[in-house]
Design a protein that fits this description.
There is one protein chain. By secondary structure, this protein is mainly alpha-helical. Helix 3 packs antiparallel against helix 4. The longest helix is centred in the first third of the chain and has 35 residues.
Amino acid sequence: MIQGPPATTTMTSIWMASAARGLFMAFVYALNSWAVLNAAQLSDGIAAIWSANAILMFAVIGRSFRQALPYYLGAAAASLFANALASFDTATVVMFTIANMSEVAIGSWTIARLRDSSQELYAPTNLLRFVGIAAGITALSASIAVTGVDTGRAEVWLSWFLSDWLGLLLVVPSLLVLRDRFSGFALAKENPKILLNRVAVYVLVLASALLVFGQNHYPLMFAIAVPVLLAVFVAGRIGAV
């Protein structure tokens, strides 16, 4: 009779895996928060897009609370650290972290119950529901966050809501598309000619983006429209992402 590994060994492996996931999320969340908060200092305190919560939501969607808990703990620790590093006072640091974690927890719980489970989250029907859910949870988290500030609450609320909502709308569906597209080494099964055409289009998009955003002397926003549309036509959803 072949016996399996001892229960203590199995439990140790589970705890180590959970700790690794939590530490990884803490690193990603802290790095993302640091980058956005530093960028905001260069734009009069306005964060154009807050993507840290979107990354956490991507990680916990579809997971049970027990599976998601390490991600939440890691992200919460990173949020406390990043906000403290940004020289916010204690009340602000705590309320911002509560706002961030409650947003993702309520959002992922709501999505799990309202989405059509027979389709991907980025399918049109589910995506429309996601837009509404994202608006609701970012409004809630913004309302929680402003309780931690003393002045300019209206401006903080609006900045939080818009940057956070935009982050969820852009990042969560995009990461899901990328995960589904490249899971199972799907890229290796691509026809080399088709893959080469897609790479050429992506290079064209990159070149046009550098041309448009790498200078501020000429209004060239129109120059990026055609390469982006071309990427969508050539590569579909992954091209849009």
